[in-house]
Every structure is written in structure tokens, then in C-alpha cells.
Design a protein that fits this description.
The chain is built from eight helices and twelve strands. With about 240 residues, it is an alpha/beta fold. Helix 7 runs antiparallel to helix 8 (about 230-235). It is globular, with a radius of gyration of 17 Å. The model has no long low-confidence stretch (mean pLDDT about 95). Bound molecules: zinc ion (ZN).
């Protein structure tokens, strides 16, 4: 089975559409590691597209916040403003759907989808020590995660861990693999193109991909919505 793995779309419809167009014909099912909304100007269209097209969706911290399931105290002012804007913009039906999204881990075949880390949907896996901790709690050999908006991930073999460069990975036996497809709608690894991954469970291989999209359009929508301009500017930089 070939899976298109998406994460952190963040209300960016242009980025999502570019990924779906580029990946067309290369996958059987779509899996989504959460944060469909927050930051971006098209939460309804993104939710509606994912409702139609994704086989599995788990929630992220911004989904929880925008659905009123977590308090916003620990969000920075820009994230908080966008969560409030999103909650207000969501159609009732989409808000209800968002509120009912399950937390990770979600089990697909023999692997898991999580938003932050296997033990905590709000936790970031950024460093080698983070990866070692996460691997000890994973319970399965392969997990896909998001939340950091950094394409790549980690291989953990007993006490040793290494960062995986985002090109191609053969998932081998004996290690724990933590794979981040990157962020569709707000990449933070210096490459502004939308990020995603394709996992082939027959060959156990992951390919990391990027898709260009019309950032200018999304930027203008962010301004038009009255969202903080910085949320549009950062898309051009991929940071
Ligand atoms: Zn996110």
C-alpha cells in the first residue's frame, strides 16, 4: 500500500492543492498527522478537502485549540489570535468534526500516526535526546509525526540515534523510525515549498517530497482575513 503522509496543513489551501496535484497517482490512501487549521486563511476548505480525501486524520494542538478543547494561555500572541480567528471562521459542521478528531497514536497496518510524540500529542521531537525518549515510548517500529514543521526525522537504534536527511529512507529492522513528512502549509526548515512524504508499506521505503505553490495568493488571503501579516511573510521564507 502506498500512503501519502500529510501534516500541519494549517489552513493553507493553495499548499494542500499543490501537494494533491503533484502526488496524484502515486498513492492509494492519504494519512494526516494533524494541525489542519490555525495560522492559515482557509480552515473550512482545508477541513472539507481532508474530510473527503483522507483515510485517517488525528488532531493536532491547533485543531484542539481552535475547537475550544484546550485553553490558549500557552500559545504565543500570534498563534492565539489565529486560533480565535479560526474558531470564529469555522462553519458549525466543520467545528463539530474538528472537535471529534481522535488524538494520536492512530494505528495503520503496523505503524502509528502521532502529532507531537508517541506519549504526548503536544510534545516536540526536535533533538537526538527527544528522539531517544520518543523511541522508548513508541511501542512500534515506525511512527509518523508532525508538530515541528521540519521534514526528516530520526532513526533510533538502542542507545544510538541519528537525524534522517529528508530524501529517501529504507525502513530497516532493529531500529525505531520516527518520520516527519514536514509541514504542508507552513514549512519551517528554510524551504518554503509545501512538504509531504510517501510511504510504501510493501517496500518499506519513504520518499520526502516538496511542491511549489502560489505563496502570494495565500499571503493576500491572510491579509484580507485580518490575520497577523507575519503569518504571510514567514511563508515566503519557509521559517
Ligand atoms: Zn503545526
Amino acid at each position: 500500500m502506498r500512503y501519502l503522509i500529510l501534516s500541519d496543513i494549517h489552513g493553507n489551501l493553495e499548499a494542500l492543492q499543490a501537494v494533491l496535484a503533484q502526488a496524484e497517482g502515486q498513492y492509494d490512501l492519504i494519512l494526516n498527522c494533524g494541525d489542519l487549521v490555525g495560522y492559515g486563511p482557509d480552515p473550512n476548505a482545508v477541513i472539507e478537502t481532508c474530510r473527503q480525501r483522507c483515510a485517517f486524520v488525528i488532531r493536532g494542538n491547533h485543531d484542539k485549540a481552535s475547537a475550544g478543547l484546550s485553553d490558549l494561555d500557552w500559545f504565543n500572541p500570534v498563534a492565539r489570535a489565529s486560533a480565535v480567528w479560526t474558531a470564529d471562521a469555522l462553519l458549525k459542521e466543520n467545528l463539530e468534526w474538528l472537535r471529534n478528531l481522535p488524538p494520536g497514536p492512530a494505528e495503520v497496518e503496523d505503524f502509528h500516526l502521532v502529532h507531537g510524540s508517541p506519549a504526548d500529542e503536544d510534545e516536540y521531537i526536535v533533538s537526538i535526546p527527544d528522539a531517544r525518549d520518543a523511541a522508548s515510548q513508541a511501542g512500534v517500529a515506525l511512527s509518523f509525526f508532525g508538530h515541528t514543521h521540519l521534514q526528516g526525522g530520526f532513526e533510533v537504534h538502542r542507545e544510538n540515534a541519528r537525524a534522517i536527511p529528508p530524501d529517501w529512507v529504507q525502513v530497516g529492522n532493529g531500529s525505531v523510525w520516527l518520520i516527519n513528512p514536514g509541514s504542508v502549509g507552513q514549512p519551517r526548515d528554510g524551504d518554503p515549498r509545501a512538504a509531504y512524504a510517501i510511504y510504501n508499506s510493501d517496500t518499506r521505503s519513504v520518499t520526502y517530497e516538496r511542491a511549489s505553490y502560489p505563496i502570494e495568493t495565500t499571503y493576500r488571503k491572510i491579509l484580507g482575513a485580518g490575520l497577523p501579516e507575519m503569518l504571510g511573510i514567514r511563508l515566503f521564507r519557509g521559517l
